[in-house]
Amino acid sequence: MNRAAIALLVVSFSSLVWVGAACAKKSGTRALTKDQTQEVEALTKAVCSCADKACSAVVSEQITAWFSGFSFADYDKAANRELARHGEQMASCIGRFVSDAGVAADLPPTDPAGQATTLLTAARTWAQRTHPAHHLEQTTISYVDAAGVLDPDHGELAVQLGTPSKPTDDPKRRTGAPIKPAGSAAAPSCPVLYWSRSAGWSSSPWTCRTLEPHVARCSPQQVWKRAIEKGAPADALAVMTLERAPDSAPMWRFKISDPPRKIDISESFADDCELAVEAQ
After folding, report:
1. What would the pLDDT profile of 171-202 be if each residue is shown by its tens digit?
2. What is the C-alpha separation between 265 and 256, in angstroms, rounded?
């Protein structure tokens, strides 16, 4: 499994860790308790001990439930880093059971130039044509420069499709009262698209999540421009992810990590540009 696939799996199971940390205006002060540390270690050990996909699916549900009940904004950076580390281990172990079986031969056209915006548009067009009941839910662009071009050696892109949530009207609900959300009849799995210069496009099934549909508004270049204004080095490569947590506005997570050069930049930007990446 390539780096983009692993990155997307990490986000699938620890997205609330990343989003919670990114959206918090300042870090919390709480540390993980001994019980919490033991619980997350046990979950990591359990999923990495699975010998088949069925076991992995069961433990994955337990992992999702554990993360969903965690108030990340209350905890310090060390706690969030520790949880993210476990998320990476979990994702790597779960990735053993994500195969390329059943991959559609009909995939989006590739772009040898590695222009991220072109690839995202191709992915959205493909999704509309081949999976009309789905929508682009989450995008991870790995090692992209300020011009929006994926690096020739390391650049990868991953796009996860989801099923849109739809409100349901309760005839007993008073007019103006909150609308109770209800998920659509979600398919058991949704496609995840991967792109790299060496292999082009590939696709694998993955667990569906149900969120409100969202059309990406900012291009990678626009996200980069905001990051440069906040001090990011313009000649670097970044990893950026567009996603939304439940009941939250879509956000771009922007990160440049280069420990030997003592660079560790992590920013979050609202996806509020004039529509650029995809047509309405």
Report:
1. 788 888 876 655 444 445 777 888 988 788 88
2. 5
Dihedral angle over CA of 256, 23, 162, 277, nearest 10: -60
* pLDDT < 70 regions, the chain: 1-27, 68-70, 72-73, 95-105, 164-169, 179-188, 207, 209-213, 245-247, 275-280
- Where are the extended beta strands (E) located within the chain? 135-144, 156-167, 181-183, 190-196, 200-206, 210-211, 238-243, 251-258, 263-270
Distance from C-alpha of 142 to C-alpha of 238, rounded to nearest angstrom: 7
Instruction: Give CA 87 to chain center in angstroms.
Output: 13
79-120 pLDDT, tens digit per residue, is 878 877 887 778 777 766 654 433 344 788 888 889 999 999
Res 165: pLDDT: 61
CB within 8 Å of 68: residues ≥ 6 apart = 16
Selection from 247, 179, 164 nearest residue 210 by Cα: 164
Q: Which residues contact 265 (CB under 8 A, 6 or more apart)?
A: 227, 231, 232, 254, 255, 256, 257
Task: Give the Cα separation of 131 and 192 in Å (integer).
Answer: 12
Cα(73)–Cα(28) distance, integer angstroms:
6
- Considering the entire predicted model, what is its pTM? 0.60
Rg (CA), the chain: 19
Phi, psi of 261 (to 5 degrees): -100, 10
How far apart (Å, rounded) are the C-alpha atoms in residues 209 and 183?
9
Separation between Cα atoms, residue 140 and residue 134, nearest integer Å: 18
Tokens (6 digits) for 279: 């047509």
Check: CB of residue 102 under 8 Å from CB of residue 205.
yes
